[in-house]
Amino acid sequence: MYEYEFERIKLSTTGYGLFGGLQIGTQEHLEIIRTRAAAGWRFAGCFPAYQNKGGYIETIDLIFEREKN
Questions:
Q1: pLDDT for 29-40, tens place per residue?
Q2: Pairing state of beta strands 2-10 and 12-16?
């Protein structure tokens, strides 16, 4: 059996795209995944937690799992 934990990350606007529209991104996830991996968690995926009316994902949940002891 596995246990799961979630970390919510707010994405930020990084500029405008080549063909118009906003670019939204983050670098925060890299350190979170490395820290969790060192603590025995496995990155299982991500889920868009909030999407604005324009269709841009503004917040994601990182999903981590590990075997339950």
A1: 899 999 999 999
A2: unpaired
Of the candidates 66, 59, 50, 57, the residue with the CA atom closest to the CA atom of residue 8: 59
Q: pTM score, two decimals?
A: 0.79
47-66 as b/e: b if 16+ CB within 10 A: eeeeeeeeeeebebebbbee
Biggest distance spanned by C-alpha atoms of the chain: 50
Residue 41 CA to residue 1 CA, distance in Å, equals: 14
Helix (H) or strand (E) holding 50: strand 42-51
Instruction: State residue 28's pLDDT score.
Output: 83
Closest by CA position to 5, among listed 47, 65, 67: 65
